[in-house]
Specification:
This protein has helices at residues 11-23, 62-72, 86-91, 93-116, 120-125, 158-177, 199-208, 228-241, 258-272, 303-309, 317-330, 332-338, 341-350; strands at residues 2-6, 27-32, 52-56, 76-79, 127-133, 181-186, 188-190, 213-216, 222-227, 247-250, 255-257, 285-288. The protein has a domain at 2-193 and 227-253 and 294-315: 3-Layer(aba) Sandwich (Rossmann fold). It is an alpha/beta fold. It is globular. It has a seven-stranded parallel β-sheet, sandwiched between helices. It contains 13 helices and twelve strands. Helix 1 crosses helix 8 (228-241), helix 2 runs parallel beside helix 4 (93-116) and helix 7 (199-208) runs parallel beside helix 9 (258-272).
Length: 358
């Protein structure tokens, strides 16, 4: 038996592949375009493993995807492939439309052609699982109930709009063509192998380098935080037992404002890697101009996944963030290798806005 995983060299996809192959002998065909956020070094432990077949390529390359499907005959496709950074989508929305909308469309068409040619038992067993985000639901007020699966879509950034479009395509291919799909919408992930442009790894990397810790606006934007390995276990459970055509929200039950996250990271670094002068890393916090259209609050109601499929996160935020900081401290080579010149230029451009140090 075989899985086709798209975007399996990115943060969440690579964690999924590593966890899957640690628990299963089932082959994974891993298709990744290897953009700036795709990193084969994350998958170095799988070198020589015959159960991991890596292919560099684009989900929008219909000929390539069709060949992979015909050659490997997967029982499921799990689609992690996406451009996923809000800030980058604001500066260059075209790539997000191309990958997240057109790429998903072309992938669905390739998969539909493959699935329709299967015999009846294989058709019945096949699954297409689409991994999406809570950002498609928009922004919540402070006292509003958390996002449920029936919350209407109100995306506010080019990134979230492109993911919302991809979700709608997946739904339509199920209702129109009968393609056996599942969709998951997750909250903010964190954990090992996270590319250091997102909040938590950026704070860790900048703190250790003695650089400012840039916090947008007043830092009171609230997010729900999900340890990446919990997300991977949720996807495995949905793939195993999810109802066709259904959406499942995946969250960590850990709503926290960004500034609290930054202070938590600083306190852990103060404990685990104290500065020589005895000062706190919190002295490096610097507030910068808020980004355009910054959503104020996200919150995930993950009760459907727990009640119907029996899944809930294994990590609390306290346990997950401690594991995450410890992982970055133990893997400086991985961090240094992903910090290319292009990445450094991006961070300098994005956080060069004037702001008063905290």
């Amino acid at each position: 038996m075989t899985l086709l995983v798209t975007g399996g060299a990115g943060f969440i996809g690579a964690n999924f592949v590593l966890d899957w192959l640690a628990e299963s002998s089932e082959t994974v065909v891993n298709l990744d375009k290897l953009t700036y956020a795709g990193n084969l070094e994350t998958l170095a432990s799988l070198q020589g493993n015959p159960a991991h077949v890596f292919v560099q390529g684009d989900i929008g390359d219909a000929d390539l995807v069709s060949r992979l499907l015909q050659t490997h005959q997967p029982r499921a496709v799990i689609n992690f492939a996406a451009e996923s950074h809000v800030d980058r989508s604001i500066h260059g929305p075209g790539e997000f439309i191309e990958t997240n909308v057109m790429g998903t469309f072309r992938l669905l068409e390739s998969v539909r052609g493959y699935w329709q040619a299967l015999d009846a038992p294989a058709q019945a067993a096949f699954r297409f699982l689409h991994v999406s985000t809570d950002e498609v639901y928009g922004s919540l007020t402070q006292d509003a109930p958390a996002f449920s699966e029936t919350h209407r879509y109100e995306p506010n950034s080019p990134y979230s709009a492109s993911k919302a479009a991809s979700d709608h395509l997946v739904r339509a291919w199920h209702h129109t063509y009968g393609l056996p799909v599942l969709t998951t919408n997750c909250s903010n992930n964190y954990g090992p192998f996270h590319f250091p442009e997102k909040l938590i790894p950026l704070m860790i990397v900048n703190a250790l380098a003695g650089k400012p810790l840039p916090v947008y606006g007043d830092g009171m934007q609230v997010r729900d935080w999900l340890y990446v390995k919990d997300h991977c276990s949720a996807i495995r459970r949905v793939l195993q037992a999810g109802q066709l055509g259904e959406t499942y929200n995946v969250g960590g039950w850990s709503e926290k404002p960004n500034i609290e996250i930054v202070h938590t990271v600083c306190k852990l670094l103060d404990e685990l890697r104290p500065k020589a002068d005895g000062s706190s890393y919190a002295s490096q916090i610097s507030y910068v101009t808020d980004r355009p259209g910054h959503d104020r609050r996200y919150a995930i109601d993950a009760r459907k996944l727990e009640q119907e499929l029996g899944w809930k996160p294994a990590e609390t935020f306290d346990s997950g963030i401690r594991k995450t900081v410890a992982w970055y401290l133990a893997h400086p080579d991985w961090v240094s290798h992903v910090q290319s010149g292009a990445y450094r230029d991006w961070v300098q451009k994005q956080y060069a806005a004037p702001g008063a140090a905290a």
